[in-house]
Amino acid sequence: VKFELSAGACRTSDGGGGNFDMVEVNETECRIQCASNADCIAYEVGLVGTVSRCELHRVGAVRSDPAVLGYNCWFKRNATAQAALLARPVSRHRMGIHESAQSGAARAEEPLTG
Q1: What is the pLDDT of residues 34-56, one digit of tens each?
Q2: CB-count burial class (<10 Å; 0-12, 13-18, 19+) for 14
Q3: Is the pLDDT of residue 84 over 50?
Q4: Is pLDDT of 86 > 80?
């Protein structure tokens, strides 16, 4: 499973937090849990004080909000996740993902290693 980094907190097309489960695990374990969960389309990581925060996002998360500092949203890139994203109507916010990638926002694709 590969993930694509998008700076900021995971958000729905209307800017909401979406549907997610929050667990207190490190980033590596967060990635593993998302990779092994068919319902997980993205995971968000960040620190709250000294506690690592992990959100496992289900359908609904389609972009990130880089204004939310200290968080990163990693989108799962596989056929199922792509189909879920493509099945949603295109909105200004979804187009913003592409625009931010063109403007040089930090995005990377990394395979799950473990």
Answers
A1: 999 999 999 999 987 888 899 99
A2: exposed
A3: yes
A4: no
Are 70 and 47 contacting, i.e. CB atoms less than 8 angstroms apart? yes
Token reading at 33: 């849990």
pTM over 0.85: no
Run of H or E residues at 88: none
Q: Is the dihedral of CA 110, 54, 17, 87 positive or negative?
A: positive
Give the whole-angstrom CA distance, residue 94 versus residue 99: 9
Rounded CA separation 98/95 (Å) = 5
DSSP string, 8-49: SEEE-TTS---SEEEE---HHHHHHHHHT-TT--EEEEEEET
Q: What is the DSSP letter of 78?
A: S
